[in-house]
Write a structure and sequence with these properties.
The longest helix has 22 residues. With 425 residues, the chain is an alpha/beta fold. The protein is globular, with a radius of gyration of 22 Å. The protein has three domains: 162 residues, Adenylosuccinate Synthetase, subunit A, domain 1 (Adenylosuccinate Synthetase, Chain A, domain 1, 3-Layer(aba) Sandwich), CATH 3.40.440; 93 residues, Adenylosuccinate Synthetase, subunit A, domain 2 (Orthogonal Bundle); 158 residues, Adenylosuccinate Synthetase, subunit A, domain 3 (Adenylosuccinate Synthetase, Chain A, domain 3). The strands form five sheets. A ten-stranded mixed β-sheet has the order 9-7-5-2-10-1-11-15-19-20, with helices on both faces. Strand 16 and strand 17 form a beta hairpin. 48% of the residues are buried. The termini are close together. Bound molecules: inosinic acid. Inosinic acid binds next to helix 4.
Amino acid sequence: MPTTVVVGAQWGDEGKGKIVDLMCAHVDIVARYQGGANAGHTVVIEGKKTILHLIPSGILQKDCVCILGAGMVIDPAKLLEEIDNLEKGGVSVVGRLFISHQAHLIMPYHKVLDELNERDLGSKAIGVTGRGIGPAYTDKYTRVGIRIVDLLDPELFREKLDANITAKNRLINELHHEPVIDRDAILNYYLDFDRRIDPLVKDVSVYLNDALDQGKTVLCEGAQGTLLDIDWGTYPYVTSSHPTAGGAVIGLGIGPTRIDTVVGVIKAYTTRVGSGPFPTEFDQPLADQMREAGGEFGATTGRARRCGWFDAVIARYSTRVNGVGSWALTKLDVLSVLPNIKICVAYEAGGKRFEQFPSESKVIKDCVPVYEEWPGWSKPINDARRVEDLPIEARRYIERIEELTARPVGIISVGSDRNETIIRN
Ligand code: IMP
């Protein structure tokens, strides 16, 4: 398929990094369309672990071109750190990494405001990653944001920075009583950053549309997950961008008619980081057991993830709002630690049964899952390379997910390494 969108179908951390890494062996270009360094992709190749926050994991495939799209918010320090680490590890980004001139910049005051906003929310805090994401998108939508293209004109950059610093320092100092941010240090740092990334800046819409016209294949990579989408997630406990498949079109400047298929990445159980509703969340001691078994600690913040049973209501919702064509089911091996496995097939709240995910946060909060219980397989499955190698109980679990979502599972991940994977189609 010339253009595929890979989208997280839950609350992020579904294992998209590994799936994108596998798929990009077969594509020419991987283009990330939203978010920033709040994401964290872990890719393990022959035991060597690489964690990326901004650059798509496609950079580890030597012939793949990687794009950072216009819908992203870019933290210069993180980007340079990733480029340096990749180059130290022998992975060159020259001629293979391009950044949209329309992407917005994360500024130091965004990170400060992110923390201060959380502090103000007290017990209602979102549980943000602290990477400045919300404040950067706020500036974008209030039309005062600073973009990569602004760096190319130092006078304009200085002007925009001055206006922003004055406004932000007023908030930081007068409202929150925290020390003001030094304008000169920012100015010099960002102009230096520009000198380094200048050769990488491109009009990615032109680049991608030309590439598609020439018959090249593009994988559009979403970060976070469907239920963290600013419109389609569990608002207000969401991120500030569009991880859903529609975000690819907006964030990359390609038309909807150019998208051929959407692969939903879905974990064999559910996790979420930060606050907000989570109907199938485990109680203790299961929560700790699964967190340890699945290594469920954030790649970006190291925070412990909340864990729960697979939720088919959410999977159906993700199918609908993303137009998922097939699933990549991840971390199936982690369920080997459980004697029995539950799947949530519907919710009940206020005497009503919900087959579809309710859109009102007040209702979601009160939803009680309706479970089916399936026997587990209680043995390691990391060596399985074909569906037939899986225990019958694991095969039944996959079939049940397919029935409940009316979508096939095309890829099954049975371990963190690139080769611990079953590819069906
Ligand atoms: P922000 O994106 O830092 O503003 O955080 C908003 C919410 O999204 C918080 O609950 C975060 O924990 C969550 N979040 C942001 N990025 C990710 C991610 O990559 N994986 C999982 N959760 C995330």
